[in-house]
């Protein structure tokens, strides 16, 4: 058969692998119109019908609807335009399906109640702007009026979760828990205290040069004592507390007195709130960061040692 030959529906079916019924349907829809009819009234098609049917089958396999396919084969719209639009639509569907899968996987893992599942679904499907507003309100409470300093701006930014477009179940679960945690009024107040204490600390003493973070000071001195199994109520622990206090007082230009020890105790207890550490753990999961180091053992030890040392100092006063 050459380019001038006309084909029956049976011929097209053999050439394309489509069924006679499918070809007749596409012909009735005007997507593959016949070039002629036989004296008996049977439809006959030109060679271009083979190419059209191959394109139609490919586009149908890709999920395009018939009206769009007809516009493509009739060259009313370009294939490039249709492909781009359909690819974007598929991307949205894929993100939606992955989010649903992640929610269902998290529900199955947690054994959630219907109410918890409903909340999880609502929080998970928030748009990026809605998620930012929800967390932004929490961070505004914590940093409001204190985030002008470049250092605090950076800290605030580092505490912002960024749920990816295609999250894993663990990320969805972490996001839901973090969102719930951020709405806890008591936790908001605790984070506000932590920021205020940090800001007050940075405003003390000489601010012209770099200074070590409070947590780094505590970890440096307490870590070895903790590893060595030193009892926080022992005289050796008192020496560790004294070393921390001396370094802190020197770094922040304040006297090492009972008032400083009380403030440092409050500082440590706020920083050691388990909800704060949980927030940072969840944040790492959501953002795909390495799990943060837990400072709870260090802070627990230092709080006990500082209370013991402070009690002894009060007895001597």
Plain-language structure description:
The protein has 317 residues and is an all-alpha fold. The chain has three domains: 9-74, Multidrug-efflux Transporter Regulator, Chain: A, Domain 2; 81-118; 126-316, no CATH class. It has 15 helices and two strands. The chain has helices at residues 9-16, 20-28, 48-61, 66-73, 79-110, 114-124, 128-143, 150-158, 169-182, 185-202, 214-227, 235-252, 258-271, 274-287, 296-316; strands at residues 36-37, 43-44. It has a two-stranded antiparallel sheet with strand order 1-2. Strand 1 (36-37) and strand 2 (43-44) form a beta hairpin. Helix 9 packs antiparallel against helix 14, helix 11 (214-227) packs antiparallel against helix 12 and helix 11 crosses helix 15 (296-316). The longest helix has 32 residues, at 79-110.
Short description:
69% of the residues lie in helices and 1% in strands. It has 317 residues and is an all-alpha fold.
Order of helices and strands: HHEEHHHHHHHHHHHHH
Shape: rod-shaped
Task: Determine the mean pLDDT.
Answer: 86
Gyration radius from CA atoms, angstroms: 34 Å
Count, helices: 15
Cα separation of the termini: 112 Å
What characterizes the major β-sheet? 2 strands, antiparallel
Strand coverage percent:
under 5%
Order of strands in the sheet with the most strands?
A: 1-2
Q: What number of structural domains do the residues give?
A: 3
Number of strands: 2
User: Ranges with pLDDT <50 over ≥5 residues?
Assistant: 206-210
| Helical residue percent band | 55-70%
- Please state the structural category: mainly alpha
């Amino acid at each position: 058969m050459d380019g001038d030959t006309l084909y029956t529906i049976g011929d097209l079916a053999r050439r394309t692998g489509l069924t006679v019924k499918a070809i007749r349907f596409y012909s009735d829809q005007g997507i593959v119109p016949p070039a002629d009819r036989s004296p008996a009234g049977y439809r006959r098609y030109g060679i271009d019908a083979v190419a059209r049917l191959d394109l139609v089958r490919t586009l149908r396999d890709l999920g395009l609807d018939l009206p769009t396919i007809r516009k493509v084969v009739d060259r009313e719209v370009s294939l490039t335009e249709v492909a781009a639009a359909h690819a974007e639509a598929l991307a949205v569907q894929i993100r939606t399906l992955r989010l649903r899968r992640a929610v269902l996987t998290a529900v199955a893992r947690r054994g959630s109640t219907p109410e918890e599942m409903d909340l999880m679904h609502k929080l998970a499907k928030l748009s990026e702007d809605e998620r930012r507003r929800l967390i932004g309100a929490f961070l505004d409470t914590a940093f409001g009026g204190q985030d002008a300093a470049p250092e605090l701006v950076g800290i605030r930014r580092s505490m912002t979760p960024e749920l990816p477009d295609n999250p894993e179940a663990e990320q969805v679960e972490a996001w839901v828990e973090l969102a719930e945690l951020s709405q806890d009024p008591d936790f908001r107040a605790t984070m506000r205290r932590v920021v205020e204490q940090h800001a007050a600390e940075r405003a003390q003493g000489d601010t012209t040069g770099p200074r070590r973070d409070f947590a780094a000071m505590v970890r440096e001195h307490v870590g070895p004592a903790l590893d060595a199994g030193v009892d926080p109520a022992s005289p050796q622990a008192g020496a560790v507390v004294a070393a921390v206090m001396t370094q802190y007082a020197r770094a922040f230009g304040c006297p090492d007195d009972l008032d400083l020890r009380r403030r440092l105790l409050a500082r440590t207890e706020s920083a050691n709130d388990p909800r704060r550490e949980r927030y940072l753990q969840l944040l790492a999961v959501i953002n795909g960061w390495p799990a943060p180091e837990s400072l709870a053992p260090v802070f627990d030890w230092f709080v006990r040692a500082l209370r013991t040392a402070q009690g002894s100092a009060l007895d001597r006063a």
